[in-house]
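explain this.
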Amino acid sequence: MTHPAPPVVLEVWCELQCPDCRTALADLAALRARYGDALDIQLRHFPLERHRHALAAAQAYEEAYAQGQAWPYAEAVLARVEELAGRGEPVLVEVARELGLDADEVDTALIDGRHLLVVDSDQAEGKAIGVTGTPTYVIGGEVLDGSKSQAGLRERIEEIADGLLAGRT
């Protein structure tokens, strides 16, 4: 009996108050459609200091992840980056409620900081591998910085993914 090969991992270093990360969602959707389960897209946190609600958003995401709604939550928050910038944490709780999550638990997680360690650890790892802005992608050991321009990045990710997947047959 043959076991399916483990998926290729694409790490997306992201922050949820970043308009460029919102733009990147279209590429991520296209990659999901093309590769399905063969590509495991993982969101990693890299909150930037200039976005004052990014750290809270990362923690709220982790609570949404714990409740089984990680990507829908990330996409819903990114759709409202301007509102998040203006109104802050209440937006994070509202989004959770709209998705049917336990919004009180999201609110409590922001107060008690239970997910801070995960976020800090991601940020430290990101800095260690050279992430300076968001979105930044890591696939097959290659770091692709999309914080200045995302032009051609999806094609490069597909090239690397295709190469990695071809080597598994």
